[in-house]
Amino acid sequence: MLFGLLRSLFHRERGSVAAPSVTAIEAAAHEELQAIGRRIDQVHALASELDKIEFWRYQAESALLLERILAQPRYDDPLRLERYGLKVYSQNDEDGILAEIFRRIGTQNRRFLEFGVENGLQNNTLCLLEQGWSGAWLEGYRDYVSAIENGFKRKIAAGLLSIREALVDRDNINDLVGALALPRDLDLLSVDIDGNDYHVWEALTAIEPRVVVIEYNAKFPPPMRWIMGYDPAHRWDGSDQFGASLESLADLGRRKGYRLVGCNITGSNAFFVKSGLAEGRFAEPADAAALYQPARYFLTPSFVSGHHAGYSRAQLP
Predict the structure, then answer these.
(1) Does the pLDDT at position 7 exceed 80?
(2) Cβ(307)–Cβ(145) under 8 Å?
(3) Number of alpha carbons in the 13 Å side-chain half-sphere of residue 145
(4) Does residue 203 fall inside a structural domain?
(5) pTM
(6) How far apart are the first and last CA of the chain?
(7) What is the dihedral of CA 100, 103, 108, 110, to 10 degrees?
(8) Number of Cβ within a 10 Å radius of residue 228
(9) How far apart are the C-alpha atoms of 172 and 203, rounded to whole Å?
(10) Does 195 reside within a domain?
(11) β-bridge partners, 164
(12) How many CA atoms lie within 13 A of 104 on its CB side?
């Protein structure tokens, strides 16, 4: 189109008296380029809308698939946890499962500890924080910590939330936790550090939480035992080299006095409850083979909780 315009400007039509001036050519070219720019902007806007529609379609299909999975007879057992899944601020359905666990066992102090929270807007304890719980977050990256300090400054100032910058490993975890002044039997610990999760939980002795939620590596189904070798310098690269299999975490939980009570449907997190509290309240048998969920990360979009999360302006208690 632009080249056609230039040709018409440089070549006199039959009957023309004189060629157009350089200024006229520049003005015409500039106008044509602006028109092209407007068309490109229109194409980008249309592509953005199409991407949005495609994502909504994917969400709808994921939700239908989730319904079909949960309709399987194994989930009719009222003591299983999968049907209670719900997203408020969690990545998947962890918020609903945790709410059901505490409905069954009750709360004692409504205190939590979570490490690996990134910017604080999507994790397993923010929903509890917004319901009057209090606790601490550990996060290893300064930019995320700064975002939390600014976004949750009212919660921090009110003493509801503590944030510490720290890369957690098995050698520093007890010192870090000991400095937080948390009750030894706090209600909830959430572990999601994409690598040394098993080793950090194994080393943690400064507290004995009533409930532990921890990421597992669903690539390795029961009875496979698989544990990533400890590496304090580990940074997850998106591969299958992270965490531990559910069977290995269930073994560790038993040694530490915890019972595996369930996994979320996407195969992301396993939930453990202190053995004495779990008796008679959760599905049997309480082993990895019965409670394992495979990796269904594609279901994550099916968990929708309204508009995207923003930093809290909720009324303080």
Answers:
(1) no
(2) no
(3) 14
(4) yes
(5) 0.86
(6) 64
(7) 50
(8) 21
(9) 9
(10) yes
(11) 138
(12) 23
